[in-house]
Design brief:
CATH topology: Four Helix Bundle (Hemerythrin (Met), subunit A)
Strand order of the largest sheet: 1-2
Number of helices: 9
Shape: globular
Number of domains: 1
CATH architecture: Up-down Bundle
Strand content: 5-15%
CATH class: Mainly Alpha
Length: 268
Amino acid sequence: MLLNGAAVPWQLSTSKVGILTNEQMDGMDHPGDPDWFRGFRKVATSARQPTLSCHMYDLLMRLPLLGWVLLSAMAQAKGLFPFFIMGGPIDLAYVVHLGMRVSTIGFLLLAAVAVILRSRPSSKAGGLEPRITALAGAFTMNAIALFPRHELSLSLEMVSILLVLIGSVGAIVALSQLGRSFSVMPETRRLVTSGPYRLVRHPLYLAEEIAIFGLFMQFASVWTALLLAVQIVFQLRRMHNEELVLTASFPEYVGYRQTTARLLPGIY
């Protein structure tokens, strides 16, 4: 019999005739089923719950990153208000500073879209260390806001803002190329070797470090230099972990790694 487009067997008993739901049928053997079909039913039933759990886990893992990205974008957007409220000359410094803010917001919003739309990973790095390293590399420099900010000369401030602007625009380009393959953790979805990935293996991290160094100039001290050094170490280890996963998942990555620099073409 067909019910809602699905074939549903009658359940016969001495007292009543009822209809089994799809959930009730899962794992239940029927007298007329061949042995191979009974085995298939058991395998399919046992695999369904883990698959659902994986979907839920993947969804839950997106929420903290999505929340952080959106909050950061809101904070950057709040910083735009003085540009439109306060009057003043529209000079080069004004344009560059405004461009830095807008590009940072653009990167954060693009990251939010990538987190929402990204596909499920085909493989992941095992163990706890790759995950801790990825989080530390991604968020360590947020602690720089705890240190006092320095007043820079106009020329140094322009250099700082330009570095943040260049890094943010570069990150947008790299993230656009990654698309649904973006992830904070060392995971594989598809191998991307086009666009900026033709030049270096980790253009997104390179762009981020350029922006981070521009930010560091505004907080430069012995302690923030130590913080930056620690973050770079975590990022290098993060790249290593990602490359291990990519090599295991994509045989062609070995050739790509041999012909493409990690961060600086012809240097490193």
